[in-house]
Input
Amino acid sequence: MNNPIRQSLLELINQHLKLKEYKVCLAVWFDRGTVKQGVACLLEVAEQFDYLAMVHEQANSYGLGSIKTLRHWMVSPKLLEGVLSGSNPAYSELRDKLTDFEVLSIDPDSLGRKAMEKFGAGFTLPENTVVGWYVPANEIPQVQSQGDRFFGNARPDSAIAILEESADFVHRKGLMFSPDPLSGRWFPNTGEGMLDRTWYQDWRQGKPGGFLLRGGRFCRIIGFEVIAKPSFSKIINTSNPGHMYVQVLLKAE
Output
């Protein structure tokens, strides 16, 4: 269930990072409702861009086969601050379009305050969060016998901000977070973003796995909910309470 447009944009950003011609500070896939027409909108923030450039290109010039048209906006971190503050009406078109977005890559140390307020939600994990590793169904017996040793020094690939927990600590409900594949920063999973996650694909196929939490406790996945609650904006530190985030239901074994 990988989203082909999302995958194509990630490949494009990866290409830019490998070339090292300039530092990619932020890459945002925005206005995602245009996906139905095969159009993708990408905001790329890099240190060397000292002017606003809008590129309206056929996607095949970028080698992006799953996209009919790529609208590629490029700005510098300093100019992005001006775009978001609304100090120049010339940038109102871009500012107004920065909705329904997903951050594909971020370097928080290179961005200004307004950019971090808008795009930096979740790069630090909230309180009462547990981290661990996803375990496919066929590996559960081995993981349960070995505990943390099964993953050695591997970096945790999942985090769960606990919202509810039973008195006996068997049942838990929490918000899912995953690390950004490029920056390693943690971000909350959205309804769109979870579609290419292995833990969701396995669950949809009737092969639910679970999470081995740091410390050795294993929790099996019972189900997922994609919901929006005003209270999430405080947990995730975002100014947009309307975003749909992924809740996971777990049972400890």
Observations:
- The first strand starts at residue 24 and ends at 30.
- The chain has seven helices and twelve strands.
